[in-house]
Design brief:
The structure is a homodimer. By secondary structure, chain A is an alpha/beta fold. Chain A has three domains: 65 residues, SH3 type barrels; 209 residues, Rossmann fold (3-Layer(aba) Sandwich), CATH 3.40.50; 119 residues, Rossmann fold (3-Layer(aba) Sandwich). In chain A, 24% of the residues lie in helices and 25% in strands. Chain A contains eleven helices and 23 strands. In chain A, the strands form six sheets. In chain A, strands 9-6-10-12-13-14-17-18 form an eight-stranded mixed β-sheet, sandwiched between helices. In chain A, strands 4-3-2-1-5 form a five-stranded antiparallel β-sheet, with helices on one face. In chain A, a hairpin with a 6-residue loop joins strand 13 and strand 14. Chain A starts with a helix and ends in a 19-residue tail after the last helix.
Chain lengths: 439, 439
């Protein structure tokens, strides 16, 4: 974490967290002195009032002046401009709104909505913003109950006549939450975009500012309505992708372009310069007169089980008092139910347990642990056996299937299978275009 | 499944499964009459003795003669050519060796090794083959006990002086089995290639013949040793990829290029014309004098748990008598352990259960449910809490981590953590090159 002796010398009495003015050859930068983040311990890192972080080489620094201690200065006055659209920012937490604890180096979700919009002053050129704090948490801690609360807020805001909603959210479970909101709040008159970041605002590669800016531009310039995710489309800062909430996965632990569309095309590219490139036209157009529908009942006793070599019937049996189970099968949607030798004799019990749970009324659906591709349980003999045991194939991401089952059981407990097989917002993959693999 | 009336008329008395000679304008094709597979019910499908399947338009067919019923003719005499290398084919089953049941349309693993090598006559130009049946099963049914048996066969063959081993295997759990063999049989003097297919041999798009041919050419022409997977590299028939056994995932339920390298580059491309393009040089060169090491102990009480919004401590508690658990966390390796409100109060119990199981000696390791990227549990506060509860971060695919834990507990029960953190064959991802995402 520490700067090199060379850099320490040039920094003089300024310490991490201080507000400083750094003079380099010909230029002057004012901002907060940050801990070193680059590979090179020489590079002096400064967080500017714009929210962007820069690295400066000590050789080029002439003077460092301390100018205070504390927060970046709030440089832009907030005033409502009635010629501009209005966007509500619902703040749930996550890296996009996190601070670094300089003692431990770990990040905490703690920035206020005001601090955040101050950090990206260009937003004020695009729209008026209402910022509301719904939660202050990492998305890895989020529960289905939080989706329920968030859905209510989205519903309320959508009925309040705003032009769009941005939900700031951690990336870990964003694919679950976005799908949940898509099911819970249907017939949305406006766009609702989940926005997160993979790098905290203290880092030079912070993606939050561009993701929020692109989301705002997309809300203001396009005629899209419904729930989508707006995040980096590549590892550079060239464009963001608007991906459908129900067909997306977090594919990489740290890359900024982690959210990829699964078996579909993204709705649009939003280029950094503000150009919107629509890639699909099968969305419902924005219509401020439309009345959204809120159905945010949830069923908490729902599980995901991943099939693996060595799985036992007891693991499935554990969920006998659950109301629904998403099974992540292998390949086209397979599970080990064939008895061939002494090592597979226990497979008969897995099949029996499936039958037993089905009979008991546990709703079970099969998705694949392969991220891409449709499920087809008619190709192989064991797929048919599993279907006969009451498990219904579902060509859907595991994230969408799980949230949909929680929602279906919570709102339509008597028609779960019908609802699960009805395509509400593109969650069921019907025809896969060839060029949607690994994009 | 049925042919159109137009095609039925031209087929006359020939029925599905019959050996027929089809005369078209200027050409004559002999083979088995197959059920219709193309979208067009007119197209007459014929499986030739070469193993390839062709579609013929009825307008161009002049005469169809029945020439018998039954298997394709074994057209090539088998004789040992001492000028050629020798490859052992270990047959475990899977689509690559499956037959279609024409009544139900479902596929069964039933073709004998002899039938299979007859189906791809060009193999005999490359090498001499010994074919041995180890199992006749779909890989979705495979148990860790089968890895143990397969490892023994690989070890025996590798010591027998053959130039390479091809393991025909279903694709569903191939990533698990390939990793298991890589851990169980180390210091291999020769290449051991897992080969499967995504389309059965009855279909025009069958990938099995090209995958086996490319694997054979790679064994004969390259100086590679160790365990890898050889499957289609694209959805066309242009090249196969040789992917490391321990860094691969089945990424698509049905595409032929389903196996993708995760966070690494493939070792090589093998072009259909036989050209080998090496992409890495960090493998151990073939050395027939090397003595392989067999360590095929297994521990059956090992599980994978996938973290999700709504997971409860009871699900982890269920595994208290297991010896090892791979936890698929969200993002960088997170789990819901922070208590923030009444909906997250049960998170304290999850953390307590982690601690309890750790103390009891259950070995727990954290991977990510994101397919790509390293795990890092130092970035966020909850990652640190989970580490403090005894869970060790592991930058490895879930498939490799699970098989490695079964193997580590089965062979080195007193040094599990040390073994899990030692990089045996590239399974631990250290530095990720930028161009390895989604290739």
């Amino acid at each position: 974490m520490d700067y090199s002796p060379k850099s320490k010398k040039i920094l003089g009495k300024a310490s991490i967290g201080d507000r400083v003015v750094v003079h380099t050859d010909g230029k002057k930068y004012e901002g907060l002195l940050m801990p070193k983040y680059s590979e090179n311990p020489d590079t002096v890192t400064l967080k500017l009032d714009s929210g962007y972080t820069i690295g400066l080489k000590p050789d080029r620094i002439t003077v460092v002046e301390k100018s205070g201690r504390g927060k970046p200065r709030s440089s832009v006055k907030r005033s409502h401009d009635s010629s501009k659209p209005t966007i509500t920012i619902l703040h749930t937490g996550g890296t996009i709104a996190s601070k670094i604890d300089y003692k431990t180096g770990a990040a905490y979700p703690a920035i206020s909505p005001e601090e955040l919009s101050d950090a990206v002053p260009e937003l004020r050129e695009i729209a008026n913003y209402n910022a509301k704090v719904v939660f202050q948490m990492y998305s890895g801690d989020m529960e289905p109950d939080h989706w329920k609360i968030l859905a209510e807020k989205v519903y309320d805001e959508a009925r309040n006549g705003v032009d769009g909603i941005i939900i700031l959210h951690g990336t870990d479970t964003m694919a679950y939450s976005a799908a949940a909101i898509a099911f819970m709040v249907q017939k949305l008159p406006i766009p609702v975009l989940f926005v997160g970041s993979q790098r905290s605002s203290d880092r030079g590669s912070a993606d939050g500012p561009m993701n929020i800016t692109c989301a705002s531009k997309f809300i203001v310039k396009s005629d899209f309505s419904g729930v989508a995710i707006c995040m980096h489309g590549t590892s550079s800062d060239d464009y963001c992708l608007i991906n459908p909430a129900v067909n997306v996965k977090k594919m990489h632990t740290s890359r900024r372009d982690t959210f990829r569309p699964i078996d579909v095309k993204p709705y649009a590219k939003v280029w950094q310069d503000g150009k919107i490139e629509m890639l699909r036209n099968d969305y419902i157009a924005k219509d401020m007169k439309k009345e959204p529908v809120l159905r945010n009942g949830i069923e908490r006793k729902v599980a995901i089980i991943k099939i693996r070599p060595g799985i036992t019937h007891k693991e499935l049996e554990f969920y006998k008092d659950y109301r629904g189970i998403i099974i992540e099968g292998t390949g086209l949607g397979n599970a080990p139910v064939t008895v061939l030798d002494k090592y597979t004799s226990h497979h008969a019990k897995l099949l029996d347990t499936m039958k037993k749970l089905s009979k008991k009324g546990v709703k079970m659906f099969m998705v694949s642990q392969c991220p891409y591709g449709k499920v087809n349980m008619n190709v192989y003999a064991y797929g048919r056996m599993v279907q006969d045991a009451g498990i219904v194939p579902l060509s859907m991401t595991s994230e969408a299937a799980y949230t949909k089952l929680i929602w279906a059981l919570g709102n339509f407990p008597k028609q779960v299978e019908k609802i699960m097989l009805e395509n509400f917002c593109g969650e069921i993959i019907e025809n896969i275009k060839a060029d949607t693999f690994l994009i």
